[in-house]
Amino acid sequence: MASIRLLPEEVVNRIAAGEVVERPASVVKELVENALDAGARRIAVTLSGGGRDLVLVEDDGCGIPAEELPLAVRRHATSKLADDLLVRITTLGFRGEALPSIGAVARLSITSRPAGAESAFTILVEGERIEGPRPAAGSFGTRVEVRDLFRRTPARLKFLRSERAELQAALETVTRLALARPEIGFTLEAEGRRLLDLAPGTGDRAARERARALAILGRELAGDLVELETEREGIRLRGLLGLPTASRADASAQHLVVNGRPVQDRLLKAALKAAYGDLLPAGRHPVATLFLELPPERVDVNVHPAKAEVRFAEPGTVRGLVIGAVRRCLAEEGRRTAGRIATAAMGAFRKEAASTGRTPVRAPSPGLAEAAAAFQAPFAPLPPAAPPGAASEPEPAAAEAFPLGAARAQLLDSYILAQTRDGLVIVDQHAAHERIVFERLKAGLEAGGVARQVLMMPEVVELGPGEREALLGRTAELVRLGLLVEPFGPGAVLVREVPALLGERPTAELVRALARELAELGSIWTLEAAVGRVAATIACHGSVRAGRRLTLAEMDALLRRMERTPGSGQCNHGRPTWIELKRADIEKLFSRR
Ligand code: ADP
Ligand code: MG
Predict the structure, then answer these.
(1) Which of 30, 45, 81, 99 for a ligand 1 pocket mutation test, highest count of atoms within 8 Å of Cβ?
(2) Please, where are the H alpha helices in 481-551?
(3) What are phi and psi of 65, to 5 degrees?
(4) Residue 383 pLDDT > 80, yes or no?
(5) What torsion do the CA atoms of 81, 83, 84, 85 make, to the nearest 10 degrees?
(6) pLDDT tens, position by position, 160-216
(7) Which of 97, 205, 254, 317 has the highest local Cβ count within 10 Å?
(8) For a pocket test of ligand 1, which of 9, 13, 28, 37 has the largest count of ligand atoms closer than 8 A to its C-beta?
């Protein structure tokens, strides 16, 4: 081995650059964060070649005095760290390594003019070479130009994705920052096209945050975002939660902001997921923005050079706060949704009638939505199991006296049409059955365990390594849910017993879905949170599918079971399981009233 030597600053910068500047989007992130730290009101980003050829960020912030420009591009030089112990960090930057890192792998030029300065000054950095500062033309604020990123480090260049993918990543970076800072105006232009144009937000904070979220997530969400605001033990949580029905196939519509910093935090993401719990089917992700504010000394942002991760001093408190607040907020909203859906159903009927040109349109029945909402509320009291005097009446009439009535027909192989004494009920058979299975699993759990059924032929299910471990790490809980699995060679498990209420359904698909679910939740999940998800997954796989023919007797049995099941007005995904039209509503549709 050669003897030990201190590395030259140039080499140190290049090493640091590897961590800070991974791709054009990281340059964009560092420069926009600097502009935000400088108190800019408007930030303009221009890219070319997906950011490889040019990243230009202009701001109207406080600027850098000419004499400090050489220092700004030196490693570990920062104006932001008043606190050398790193416990009270209030800015996005503090490590003083972005500009030197960028200078080490690209051509960097900074032109800046602080308020009151007579002219701007510019400085150029390219590897070891530094030129300037010298006077230049420029308006107040700072303009940072980064050209030919990674030109001198071909190894990195090779790892970049297509121009399009890099541009997309840069756009997402700006979008995330823009969502976190709605009072600031942002633009992004690439190859002469304006991809983002966000004016500085106005109005109070809630109004600004909502307007910015809609501008970014899509205006069609306007009716689907619920506001959340709460505080506990000095931690404030605000946010906008998407209704379960507005879920997405990936987590890209989740924005987590901690003390003004967009983060990709595992704990917060998992808490959000657990809070939506069984309101979302496996593989769906909620739309949500969460703003968490807490004293800076209670969160460590110095975890990684890219600062996308944070550590909370009290992770349990943060997790509890998020799960509790999100759940409460969704439960309240669940009651309102059911009402809105019933009203919308009425509207759809009326529109149909109106378009035939024969029937005049009338105002919706005022009582219907409220009645539906009250009955379908997730935690509403149960309707009476049997109506008084039902036993003495002849069969069909007796069934009609039940809240969900007597089954009359199956429509489209998916919906049950039932007649009540005073109208008709349409039931979504899969959704309803799923909820029933779920509630039975939960009840079984509370009673000490779900009834199991031994498989005549134990089933071998192949799983990926992470999934297999996740599943086998939870065998004790799975047994309580009725599922007995054991290791079977390196890449598989053996299923010996399944929940009895699943009947003779194939188990492989279910076991794979469960393993995926558990792997995603990770080991930090409490028994309670994990069990909720697992039960929901089992319920979904163990339920009557849409498209299965049912006899009248089977349908009636399902209706009676729904009446006895708490929360059966909503399926596990938050959709209603049934809607009702009263005689009066039907008469209105036909203009008899
Ligand atoms: P950090 O942001 O961690 O301090 P940087 O290398 O990103 O480190 O920036 C170094 C310093 O240059 C900052 O501390 C700040 O004083 C100054 N600076 C960088 N960009 C700007 C800007 N857009 N406006 C004003 N000052 C800036
Ligand atoms: Mg910085």
Answers:
(1) 99
(2) 508-521, 527-541
(3) -60, 145
(4) no
(5) -130
(6) 888 889 999 999 999 999 999 999 999 999 998 999 999 999 989 889 999 999 999
(7) 97
(8) 37
- Closest ligand 1 atom to residue 96 Cα is 8
Q: From the CA of 78, how far away is ligand 1's center (Å)?
A: 6
Separation CA 84–CA 90 (nearest Å): 13
212 touches 178 (CB < 8 A):
yes
C-alpha 91 – ligand 2 centre gap (Å): 9
**Confidence class for position 545, pLDDT limits 50, 70, 90:** low
- The closest-lying atom of ligand 1 relative to the alpha carbon of residue 98 is 6
Pocket of ligand 1 (CB under 6 A): 30, 34-35, 38, 59, 61-64, 72, 78-80, 93-99, 142
List, for residues 246-275, the tens digit of each pLDDT value.
888 888 889 999 999 999 888 999 999 888
Over 248-306, what HEC string results? ECCHHHEEEEECCEEECCHHHHHHHHHHHHHHCCCCCECCEEEEEECCHHHEECCCCCC
User: What strands lie across the sheet with 578-582, from one edge to the other?
Assistant: 406-411, 415-420, 423-428, 578-582
- Distance in angstroms (rounded) separating the CA atoms of residues 32 and 174: 8
Q: Which residues, in sequence order, are CB contacts of 259 under 8 Å at separation 6+?
A: 90, 292, 293, 294, 296, 299, 301
- Taking the whole predicted model, whether its pTM rises above 0.90 is answered as no
Q: Cα–Cα distance between 367 and 339 in angstroms, integer?
A: 10
Q: How far is the CA of 100 from the centre of ligand 1 (A)?
A: 10
Kindly report which listed range (66-75, 110-119, 518-527) carries the lowest average pLDDT score.
518-527
**Using an 8 Å Cβ cutoff, are 166 and 149 in contact?**
no
Distance from the alpha carbon of residue 38 to the mean position of ligand 2, in angstroms: 10
Whether the bond between 133 and the residue before it is cis, its omega within 30 degrees of 0, is yes
Q: How far apart are CA 333 and CA 302, in angstroms?
A: 37
Q: Beta-carbon neighbour count of residue 235 at 10 Å?
A: 19
C-alpha 100/C-alpha 71 separation (Å) is 10
Q: What is the per-residue pLDDT for 375?
A: 35
Residue 304 CB neighbours (<10 A): 11
- The closest residue, in CA terms, to atom 18 on ligand 1 is 34
Mutate-to-test residue for ligand 1 from 41, 55, 78, highest number of ligand atoms within 8 A of CB: 78
Distance, in Å, from the CA atom of 146 to the CA atom of 124, rounded to the nearest integer, reads: 10
What is the number of the ligand 1 atom nearest to the C-alpha of 78?
A: 14
